TrEMBL record:
Residues annotated as domain FCP1 homology: 132-292
Superkingdom of origin organism: Eukaryota
GO MF terms, alphabetically ordered: metal ion binding; protein serine/threonine phosphatase activity
InterPro entries: FCP1_dom, HAD-like_sf, HAD-SF_hydro_IIID, HAD_sf, Ubiquitin-like_dom, Ubiquitin-like_domsf, UBLCP1
Cellular component terms (Gene Ontology): nucleus
Assigned EC number: 3.1.3.16
PROSITE patterns assigned: FCP1, UBIQUITIN_2
Protein known as: Ubiquitin-like domain-containing CTD phosphatase 1
Magnesium among keywords: yes
Keywords: Hydrolase, Magnesium, Metal-binding, Nucleus, Protein phosphatase
Cofactor(s), names only, from the UniProt record: Mg(2+)
């Protein structure tokens, strides 16, 4: 009887247990994943399955990987119905679900949510990847659909990376310390940053990562209970950063509910295979970030919803845009 290898596949917030024999191949693994998740083998991206630093081919035997018992494998991939729905969606449809401007001011000042922020400041442990630099402003970046299309099929991470990502980060690093904040788990964040080459790029450094555990839940009349990203968690841990010098970029405006004047909603980067050649959002954002850093002393005085039309004034009058 063949020895069994148990693998835990993490996908879309759930875990799936798969058993394979010593003679099973990567293709057999993908077929087993297909049975449990519905994601076709050709749509699957197995993020942390490697042999000598490279993804193994389909005919590669799983036993040669010497996986630890109950090895956790992270997969990216889309169901056919989801891909079809995304393909039918018209472009530039207003994201009504995330448009919560009527509740922004009320929510950011509610004591119950400020108490949650204080709890995160005390209990959330930040793993520093580099040191804060004197006189630098702070840029907080989302990952999914902001820097990376995580829902389209591709052979490599580079195909799903938003165009000009590294140029954008290198330019921003001149004026800003950079934090990555995703609503996923820390392991996912670390894997995606490796996949995109962000964690190893010599031209810029990331200050630290924040995951879903740093977020708080708020209640909105429109959407009920939602998780958001309160910048106060960072400000409470680092005196250098505050509302005047911090900007958060995300594709979901709801994430700014605790700090509506510090959020900039970016256009979603989806269907990378269709939009990669024409998407220049990060190039235009680079100019905006540079203008802010040079000309603006208080980011809350600028309406970031109209960032594409921003015309910097003289420094002492930069807030009146």
């Amino acid at each position: 009887m063949d020895n069994l290898t148990k693998i835990i596949v993490k996908w879309s917030g759930k875990e799936y247990e798969i058993e394979l024999t010593e003679n099973d191949t990567v293709l057999n693994l993908k077929q087993a994943i297909h049975k449990q998740t519905g994601v076709r083998p050709d749509r699957q991206k197995l993020l942390n399955l490697n042999f000598k630093g490279k993804p193994p081919q389909d005919d590669f035997k799983i036993s040669r990987l010497n996986l630890k018992p109950s090895f956790k494998l992270m997969m990216m991939g889309s169901l056919e119905e989801d891909i079809a729905e995304a393909s039918r969606a018209p472009e530039d449809v207003p994201d009504v679900v995330n448009d919560l401007e009527l509740e922004e001011i009320a929510i950011e000042n509610q004591e119950i949510y400020l108490s949650k922020v204080e709890k995160r400041i005390k209990e959330y442990d930040i793993k520093m990847l580099s040191d804060p630099r004197p006189d630098k402003k702070l840029l907080v970046l989302d990952i999914d659909y902001t820097l990376f299309d995580h829902n389209s099929p591709a052979e490599t991470g580079a195909e799903l990376m938003r165009p000009y990502l590294h140029e954008f980060l290198e330019s921003a690093y001149e004026d800003y310390d950079i934090v990555i904040w995703s609503g996923t788990g820390m392991k996912w964040i670390e894997e995606k940053m490796k996949l995109l080459g962000v964690s190893t790029n010599p031209n810029y450094k990331i200050l630290f990562y924040l995951d879903s555990l740093a977020m708080i839940s708020v209640h909105t009349q429109k959407d009920g209970i939602r998780d958001v990203k309160p910048l106060g968690v960072i400000w409470g841990k680092f005196e250098q950063y505050n509302s005047k010098n911090t900007l958060m970029i995300d594709d979901i405006r709801r994430n700014f509910l605790m700090n509506p004047k510090n959020g900039l909603r970016i256009r979603r980067f989806r269907q990378a295979h269709l939009n990669r050649a024409t998407d220049n959002e990060l190039l235009r954002l680079s100019k905006y970030l540079k203008d802010l850093a040079v000309n603006c002393d208080d980011f809350t005085m600028v309406n970031h919803r109209h960032w594409e039309k921003y015309k910097p004034k003289r420094r002492h009058n930069a807030g009146n845009s």
